[in-house]
Amino acid sequence: xxxxxxxxxxxxxxxxxxxxxxxxxxxxxxxxxxxxxxxxxxxxxxxxxxxxxxxxxxxxxxxxxxxxxxxxxxxxxxxxxxxxxxxxxxxxxxxxxxxxxxxxxxxxxxxxxxxxxxxxxxxxxxxxxxxxxxxxxxxxxxxxxxxxxxxxxxxxxxxxxxxxxxxxxxxxxxxxxxxxxxxxxxxxxxxxxxxxxxxxxxxxxxxxxxxxxxxxxxxxxxxxxxxxxxxxxxxxxxxxxxxxxxxxxxxxxxxxxxxxxxxxxxxxxxxxxxxxxxxxxxxxxxxxxxxxxxxxxxxxxxxxxxxxxxxxxxxxxxxxxxxxxxxx
Length: 328
Hints:
Number of strands: 14
Radius of gyration: 22 Å
Strand order of the largest sheet: 6-7-8-3-9-10
Distance between the termini: 48 Å
Largest sheet: 6 strands, mixed
Helix content: 25-40%
Number of helices: 12
Strand content: 25-35%
Shape: globular
Number of domains: 2
Order of helices and strands: HEEEHEEHEHHHEHEHEEHEHEEHEH
């Protein structure tokens, strides 16, 4: 094993948080002037699964870009295990693994070669890089496609390979930027099973996602950002208790609800909002006597096929804090 292979583990700080952001700002000159990051303070503990949530344009990807040395901040500091990402980007990169929204696999290399050359870029010997590539292909269930090229595999396989490549050099902090966007449910489940296994190995994960149920189920803590600022940061349960609603009613309907149906639902005492959902509508409301029968009665003209009632969700918190307007 070479010194380069030993360096990330050997020089890691045992006391510093995995990620620390202090007064972080990123301003793009205008006109108009855009404050993509408007003063963010955050810390992520080692071994934590941390979610970074926000609407489109909220500053999530810019924040990840700064943390992973791809974007230079205007002000403030970002540190990875105590290493300043601006002052020592090469040293910080040894601690980092990154999976971006876009497929960045080398299409001219096989799956095996994508992994092997990645290790070589980080100074690994040829023998060690080859062994690590074989190990990851097996762990990520890609061994039978080792000699295939990225354009010959499914989207789910490609995303698994991107995660495998991101952790090939044994980083301590993994950034996943919208990792399951566009994947089918089976591929999403398989990917999260693998990420959960990596966490058991002690890997710290920072996740951005538009799937609120993913963040709710997987993350130890989440921060909701908007307009480049952190609105709240806590465990999903604490956020639901402090900023959620009492009840979420999901209705599967036979037809698209007419405006009169939506108006009748919004007029029910305690209802905060009525949102479109897959196959029907979702009603966010305070818990009250007779809520469920009133909602079913009001939605009756659209044909209620199924109804479910649950407590507050992270999605309800997200909507309450950031609003319902669509963002480009």
